[in-house]
Design a protein that fits this description.
Layout lengths: L2 H17 L1 H16 L11 E4 L2 E4 L13 H14 L7 E4 L12 E3 L8 E2 L12 E6 L17 H13 E12 L4 H8 L7 E7 L6 E3 L2 H4 L13 E8 L1
Parallel strand pairs: 3-4, 3-6, 4-5, 6-7
Antiparallel strand pairs: 1-2, 7-10, 8-9, 8-10
Helix pairs in contact: 1-2
C-alpha cells in the first residue's frame, strides 16, 4: 500500500471519529481528487466564470495549487479591479506576499512571516510608514491576523484595521481584500454584521469538485463551511473599504 493511500485512510478514520461517516467520505473524495486532478488541468483551459457581467478566465497556475482553491478566482478578480484602478501607477502596499507571485504592480509587501527578497517582515498590527498609500491589497491574509496565534487573539483584526486607517492608508484610499469564509468565524461575523464598513462587496460559492465558482448572496455565502463539502474555501468574500 502506497504512502498516499495510507495517509488518506488515516485521515478518513480520524474524520469519522470527529465529524461522522458522510463528512469523512467527502473529505477522502476531495483528497483523492487533489492527487489525480493535476494530470487533467489541461481540460480546464479556456474555462471562464462571471464577475460584474464579464467573463474572466480561471487562474490555473500550479503555484500554491491555485487551480484547486479559491485562488483560482481571487487572482483574476483582484487583478481586474486593480487594473481598473490603474494600480501600477499608484502607491500600493500588499499585506501578505500573495499577489506578488502572480502579477507585480511595484507594490511594497508587508508579511510577518515570509522571508523573501523585498518583503518587509513586520506585523500589520504595528507597521507604520511616513509615506501613506493610495491602495492596499490583501489576498486571503487578514483572516490569519490574531486567529492563528497561540493563544488566539481574534480581536487583533480590529486593531489591524485601525492601524491601516490611521497610519498606512491615505484619506480616501482603499483597502481591497478577500476572505475565505468559514476559516475565521470572528472576522466572518464582523463582515456579516456590517461591523467593517465597506464601499463594495461581492460573494462567491464553490459549486463543483472541479473548482467552478459562481456569484452568490451574502446570506448564502455565510451559510457555507470551510473545507466542506469541497476542499479549502467553499465561499469567498471580496470587499473594498475606503478610508
Amino acid at each position: 500500500m502506497s504512502e498516499s493511500i495510507r495517509y488518506i485512510l488515516k485521515k478518513t478514520l480520524q474524520a469519522v471519529k470527529r465529524k461522522g461517516f458522510v463528512y469523512a467520505i467527502t473529505a477522502a473524495r476531495n483528497r483523492i481528487y487533489r492527487m489525480i486532478a493535476p494530470s487533467f488541468i489541461f481540460l480546464r483551459k479556456g474555462r471562464k466564470f462571471e464577475f460584474e457581467n464579464e467573463k474572466l478566465y480561471y487562474n490555473l497556475s500550479k503555484y500554491g495549487m491555485c487551480w484547486n482553491s479559491e485562488r483560482t478566482i481571487e487572482m483574476p478578480i483582484i487583478i481586474k479591479i486593480l487594473d481598473k484602478m490603474n494600480a501600477k501607477h499608484r502607491n500600493m502596499l500588499e499585506i501578505g506576499n500573495v499577489l506578488n507571485n502572480y502579477k507585480k504592480y511595484g507594490q511594497i509587501v508587508v508579511d510577518k512571516f515570509e522571508k523573501n527578497k523585498g518583503v518587509i517582515n513586520e506585523d500589520i498590527l504595528n507597521y507604520k510608514t511616513k509615506k501613506k498609500f493610495d491602495i492596499m491589497v490583501s489576498v486571503s491574509t487578514l483572516e490569519h491576523v490574531g486567529w492563528d496565534e497561540t493563544p488566539s487573539k481574534p480581536e487583533n483584526i480590529l486593531l489591524a484595521v485601525k492601524n491601516i486607517k490611521q497610519n498606512i492608508l491615505k484619506k480616501g484610499g482603499i483597502l481591497l481584500f478577500t476572505i475565505p469564509i468559514g476559516y475565521n468565524p470572528y472576522i466572518d461575523s464582523l463582515i456579516a454584521k456590517n461591523k467593517i464598513k465597506l464601499e463594495k462587496e461581492w460573494y462567491f460559492k464553490k459549486i463543483s469538485l472541479s473548482n467552478k465558482w459562481k456569484e452568490t448572496t451574502k446570506k448564502y455565502a455565510f451559510s457555507r463551511e470551510y473545507n466542506y463539502p469541497y476542499e479549502c474555501a467553499n465561499a469567498l468574500f471580496i470587499g473594498i473599504m475606503r478610508n
